[in-house]
Structures are given as C-alpha cells and as structure tokens.
Amino acid sequence: MKPCSVTFRRQKKTAEEAKQIAVFMRAFLKKITLCEFILDLGLMCDAVQDLSELSLDLQERDINLYKADRKIKNTVQLFHERIENPGPFYSVSLESPKNMKFKGIALHRNEKHSPAVTSSAFYESLKQAVGKRLLEGDDADLPECAKVLDRTYWPENPPNQLTFGETEIKKLALKFCLNEREILCGFRAYLQDNRIPDKLLPL
C-alpha cells in the first residue's frame, strides 16, 4: 500500500502545481494583453534602446571627456524631443488603442482604470536623470577645454601655432593638480610631433 499512497500524493501535488501554474498563466496573459501595458512597453523599449546606445558610446576606446559630454548632451536633447516626437516602438504601440489589437493579439482595458505612463512625464524624468551626469559649476567648461586634446579639432599647421589650446591646458592642469609647465610643454610637443609625449600622459 505504501507505494500506492506515495504515488497518490505525488499525483495530487502535481495536480495542485499544475493548477497554480494555470492560474499564474491566466493572470500573466491578462497583464500582457492590457492596452496600458503595451503603451508602457513601447515607451520602455525606446528608452532602453537609446540608453544602451549611450552606454556603448561611452565605452568606446577613443572616448574622451569632450566626446562623452557631447554624447550625454545629445541624449538629453533626444529625450527632450521625444516628449513631442515618439520613438519607433512607442509609435507602434500608440496604434493599439485604436483597434484594441497588437500584432494580431486582442487587447483589453485595465478594469481598475490605472492609466498608462504619461510619455511627457516619463521622458522629463529621464532627461533630468541623465542630465545629472553632466559637469556643473566650475567644472562645466572642462569638456570644452579637453577638446583641444583631440587632433580632429586642431587648426591647420599646428606646429606653427604652439599657443593653440594654451589656456585650456592650463585650466585642465590646475583642475587635476598637475604640473602646469610640464603639461604645457608636453602639449606643445604633441602639436609639433603629432605624437603623445610622456609629459602629457598624466592628463
């Protein structure tokens, strides 16, 4: 009798688990077919894509302070414009309330009347959060100072313009507590030889 009783208990437990899974799946299906859920999902997909692209940009091997500052500012501007101009995923999800379908799947409204996330409030919050990563106060001009280290922005014939970037390099050296004369000499050597000298490496 013992094997029979064990088998019965196992079957009973399996039946209860199956019932619990069925209840969970019905609730899950009801959740993901909410019209409000689809709208929120569209917002999130656009935002995650933009933030992931920013993250990858900031991990590039040739990233510097000026480039990083510009990319963050671009993302802040993008989120500001998204308030009026929805992204690709949100644009698709906005069509779902019109026919109560998404990709051929029937949708329903939230019975509790819980509204979808407001896109303007969502992007305003994101804009502020990303904007906090920008330098402020006395440090706000550091990215522009660091721009002189990028050869892309050098003038023509830099060896003939050794005073180029002098003010910016002095500010950077002062900010990071480096020897101003050594850093400045190193930058001039960089202008002349188009190769980063050891004296400039601390910067």
Tell me about this structure:
The protein is an all-alpha fold and 203 residues long. Helices cover 62% and strands 2% of the residues. It contains 9 helices and 2 strands, in the order αααααββαααα. It has helices at 2-32, 35-58, 65-82, 88-93, 96-99, 119-131, 142-146, 166-175, 180-193; strands spanning 101-102, 105-106. A two-stranded antiparallel ribbon has the order 1-2. Strand 1 (101-102) and strand 2 form a beta hairpin. The chain starts with a helix and ends in a 10-residue tail after the last helix.
Descriptive tags:
203 residues; mainly alpha; two-stranded antiparallel sheet; 9 helices; 2 strands
Briefly say what this structure is.
The chain has 203 residues and is mostly helical. 62% of the residues lie in helices and 2% in strands.
**How many strands?**
2
Q: Strand count, sense and closure of the main sheet?
A: 2 strands, antiparallel
What is the C-alpha radius of gyration, as a whole number of Å? 29 Å
Tally of alpha and pi helices: 9
Structural class: mainly alpha
Q: Give the uncertain stretches in residue-range form.
A: none
Tell me roughly what share of residues is in helical segments.
Answer: 55-70%
Q: Compute the separation of the termini in Å.
A: 81 Å
- What is the overall silhouette? elongated
- Main sheet: strand order: 1-2
Strand proportion: under 5%
Overall pLDDT score: 88
Q: What's the oligomerization state?
A: single chain
Order of helices and strands: HHHHHEEHHHH
